[in-house]
């Protein structure tokens, strides 16, 4: 168990998450495209960059809308809308990328995106579970001391 300040913990989380995500999604994209790792690595990196940038833009806008409408607590439907909005926006960027890079049609690219989405749902759950055990939240660290 490593005790870290909140900002350092967040930076390590993002760096580890994105590094592993790039490696694992390169393998997945490689399997789906039946290509080699060299052809899928640039796409995995591009998708990672797109996801990080889109995450920042989307969440900035979403939180601004929450403030504007006076929303102080996220209900289950609001959380579902948040997730659908984020993933929907990501699809708008990644499906055309897959179509151009792999020279596939819309449905093939959409299926690739669906596979990546399912992979990331599982990956994020297990990564965060392991990360939280290795690097507990600062407020959890105080309780454990």
Automatic annotation (TrEMBL):
Pfam families: BTP. The keyword NADP does not apply. The chain crosses the membrane at residues 12-31, 43-62, 83-104, 110-131. The keyword Flavoprotein does not apply. It comes from the Bacteria. Keywords: Membrane, Transmembrane, Transmembrane helix. Residues 7-68, 74-136 form the Chlorhexidine efflux transporter domain. InterPro entries: BTP_bacteria (IPR007896), PACE (IPR058208). This is PACE efflux transporter. It comes from Falsigemmobacter intermedius.
């Amino acid at each position: 168990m490593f005790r870290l300040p909140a900002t350092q913990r967040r930076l390590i989380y993002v760096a580890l998450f994105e590094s592993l995500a790039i490696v694992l999604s390169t393998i997945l994209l490689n399997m789906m495209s039946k290509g080699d790792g060299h052809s899928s690595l640039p796409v995995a990196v591009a998708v990672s960059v797109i996801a990080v940038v889109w995450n920042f833009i989307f969440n900035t806008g979403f939180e601004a809308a929450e403030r504007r409408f006076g929303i102080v607590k996220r209900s289950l439907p609001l959380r579902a809308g948040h997730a659908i909005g984020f993933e929907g926006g990501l699809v708008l960027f990644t499906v055309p990328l897959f179509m151009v890079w792999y020279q596939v049609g819309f449905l093939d690219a959409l299926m690739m995106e669906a596979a990546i989405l399912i992979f990331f749902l599982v990956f994020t759950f297990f990564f965060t579970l392991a990360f939280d055990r290795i690097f507990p939240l600062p407020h959890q660290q105080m309780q454990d001391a």
